[in-house]
Design brief:
heterodimer, A: 335 residues, alpha/beta, TIM Barrel, 12 strands, B: 340 residues, 8-stranded parallel barrel, 13 helices, 10 strands, globular
């Protein structure tokens, strides 16, 4: 079984899990989950017991097998698509205090930000000043630019929303089809991030880490390894799309108020999800899952993708972190 | 405010110029690109062929005719990203378009490609596409630092946000905001889906099996009672909204006017933001749709130019549309909070 720090003397950063760090992401939880942060509940027990996402049981089992001894050493706070879920400075301070108690590092996740959101994010980031091993995950270049100019010493990670590649679950598994032109296959299985212009930006802004999705199409080896920065991979949700108008946030509004960008909501995303079943073209009734979480849509990747990506970790020079988004609203850990 | 208009073939130039276009944008897909990628990787957001020019001579002629009317032409290279090999292919293409065809600039979405372009062609005008999702003043500063000439705002921004970002860009960057025709249910710059082969995901979603699930319950659990009813209403409204955002089932109404997303009644407010240009989108639309759209926007701008008050401008805009029920629904509006 996977071990928490309470059951193991060595810190995960000191060698457990083949040196691969695991972060737990709580995108919908406002307050820290003490049991997990104190190491009182094992990662696999927590994930296995979570309903309704069977994928988390698969993840727990696969992590155990591929990264023996691994335990969470980092928590991700904040939501990558909605600035209404940006934690207040007070909430972040609470997360930081709890994480310090459990010797966990903190990553503050920022969504693509509006002008108001950017102002709030700057306040939130101040809380991390002097917090060891803390970092900010930015999902738009405007935020990167602003934070770097105001906080030269801040560790900024490029969030997976900035990794421009197609992830459409209806088609992605066909992207490396032998029937596709060779050049097209290559282009659909890599990004533009190894081009000189993008490299210059990474250097200019001192970006040392990039987050990426669990792609359905097999990425070319260069996309993983020919980078100067370290790579974190998210599981089990593949980001597909988002809107600034929120589906669930429109649940309680009057018709004319629904689907307005940035409109008020009742945080319905913390209570509900919408599950879509997308027909697969030409597959006679086969469907792909698509999960709406507020203003974003995700695809829960199949075990074969998890296996393919975790299987490359022992030989990877760049991938040294896995980020697991907790199922549901994360409230299981509130007690 | 200037008026930026799509153009897809030579025959449209004179018609659109005579009806008040101030700037043109077009797409160009060289045959070599199609040989390499077929329809699998679109060079720009309309592809692989529809709405694009495919011969460089046609681009040259289009530019020549446009310049005769004093109208600049920008060519769009706004795929969300280009691989290193694609960038190596495209840089000489853009070099020839600039030197030999006389284009005035390009529109791009890939931040790394923007850097490469500025390095290769320091004098070239580069517009940052709406696909770059400029949502905050930090992005304006970022684009300015990279030498972009103009920022095209995404459709999700309201007038107040546009005003604030125009303020941030003042004296440094030109700005552009959508005024008619093409919608996007999602945030275009963060949508990783493709319209290729399977169509737009947003259009498909309301029609596929779905259910609203309470979190923390069993997988088979579904919503009941009042919340269940709200969930059903929500998904019905979602279907309506997607329908309006995608042209109301038909890109033209029975009066011959274009359906689809619209900011006509917000033009009075947009004018006060200081935005440089209003954009009519739809390179793939028919010449007729382009023409009527242009005439509608120009009609409202002319009224504004004669000093009409806000309410009169909004009334005129809705009268031009002649679909009051669509306007009342507000799901067709780009600028929902400002809709009159």
């Amino acid at each position: 079984m996977l071990l928490t720090r309470d059951r193991r003397v060595a810190l995960p950063r000191e060698g457990a899990g083949l040196g691969v760090e695991v972060g737990l992401s709580f995108p919908f939880l406002a307050a820290p989950p003490p049991a997990v942060l104190r190491g009182e509940e094992s990662l696999d027990d927590a994930l296995r017991g979570a309903a309704p996402d069977d994928a988390h049981a698969v993840i727990a089992e696969a992590l155990l097998r591929h990264l023996p001894g691994v335990a969470p050493s980092r928590v991700y706070v904040g939501n990558e698509t909605c600035e209404r879920l940006l934690p207040t400075p007070r909430a972040i301070a609470s997360w930081v205090a709890s994480a310090r108690e459990g010797r966990l590092a903190v990553s503050l996740v920022l969504p693509p930000l509006s002008r108001d959101g950017l102002s709030k994010a700057e306040e939130a980031v101040r809380v991390l000043d002097g917090v060891e091993a803390s970092e900010v995950v930015a999902n738009d270049w405007g935020t990167v630019h602003r934070l770097r100019s105001r906080y030269p010493g801040l560790t900024i990670v490029l969030g997976r929303l900035t990794h421009k590649m197609l992830r459409d679950p209806r088609l992605a598994e066909y992207f490396d089809s032998p029937q596709a032109p060779m050049a097209a296959r290559a282009a659909l299985c890599r990004s533009g991030e190894l081009a000189p212009g993008f490299r210059a930006l990474m250097e200019r802004y001192g970006i040392g880490r990039r987050e990426i999705d669990p792609f359905l199409q097999p990425l070319e080896a260069d996309e993983w390894e020919s980078r100067s920065e370290k790579v974190s991979v998210h599981f089990p949700y593949l980001f597909v799309t988002m809107g600034r108008a929120c589906l669930l946030g429109a649940m309680h509004g009057e018709p004319v108020e629904k689907f307005v960008s940035g409109a008020p909501c009742r945080s319905e995303c913390r209570k509900y999800a919408v599950e879509f079943r997308l027909p697969v073209p030409g597959e006679n009734g086969a469907v792909k899952n698509l999960l709406n979480r507020g203003n974003a849509y995700y695809h829960v990747v199949p075990p074969s993708v998890i296996e393919r990506i975790l299987g490359r970790l022992p030989s990877s020079r760049r991938v040294d972190r896995i980020v697991v988004t907790v199922p549901g609203d994360g409230s299981r850990w509130r007690q | 405010m200037r008026l930026t208009v799509p153009v897809s073939n030579l025959e449209e130039v004179e018609m659109l110029a005579e009806n008040g276009a101030d700037e043109f944008f077009c797409g160009y897909v060289p045959p070599e690109w199609l040989e390499r990628y077929g329809g699998a990787f679109w060079l720009n957001r309309r592809g692989p062929v529809v709405g694009n020019l495919v011969q460089r001579d046609d681009v040259s002629l289009l530019v020549e005719r446009s310049h005769a009317f004093g109208i600049p032409v920008h060519v769009t290279f706004n795929a969300p990203y280009y691989t290193p090999e694609q960038q190596e292919f495209l840089l000489p293409v853009i070099g020839r378009l600039t030197r030999e065809s006389g284009i005035d600039g390009v529109i791009v979405s890939d931040v790394g490609f923007l850097v490469a372009l500025r390095c290769a062609f320091p004098e070239l005008s580069v517009h940052a596409s709406s696909v770059m999702a400029t949502l905050n003043p930090g992005m304006v500063d970022f684009l300015d630092s990279l030498g972009a000439r103009r920022v095209i705002f995404p459709r999700s921004l309201g007038v107040a946000d546009i005003a604030a970002l125009c303020g941030a860009a003042a004296g440094r960057l030109e700005t552009e905001a959508f005024v008619m025709n093409e919608g996007c249910v999602f945030e275009e710059g963060y949508c990783m889906t493709t319209h290729r082969s399977v169509g737009a995901l947003c259009v498909q979603l309301p029609g596929v099996p779905h259910r609203v699930l309470p979190l923390g319950g069993e997988r088979s659990e579904s919503l009941a009672g009042e919340e269940g009813e709200r969930a059903r209403e929500l998904m019905g409204a979602f279907k309506d909204w997607v329908w309006f955002q995608n042209g109301c089932g038909n890109s033209m109404n029975s009066s011959g006017m274009p359906n689809g997303p619209c900011g006509l009644c917000a033009i009075f407010d947009l004018a006060r933001t200081g935005v440089t240009s209003l954009k009519i989108s739809g390179r793939g639309a028919s010449s007729y749709r382009k023409l009527v759209s242009l005439q509608m926007v120009r009609g409202v701008l002319d009224l504004l130019g004669r000093g009409a008050p806000r309410e009169e401008v909004a009334r005129k805009a809705m009268a031009l549309r002649n679909t009051p029920k669509f306007c009342e629904a507000r799901y067709m509006c780009y600028y929902r909070e400002e809709a009159s």
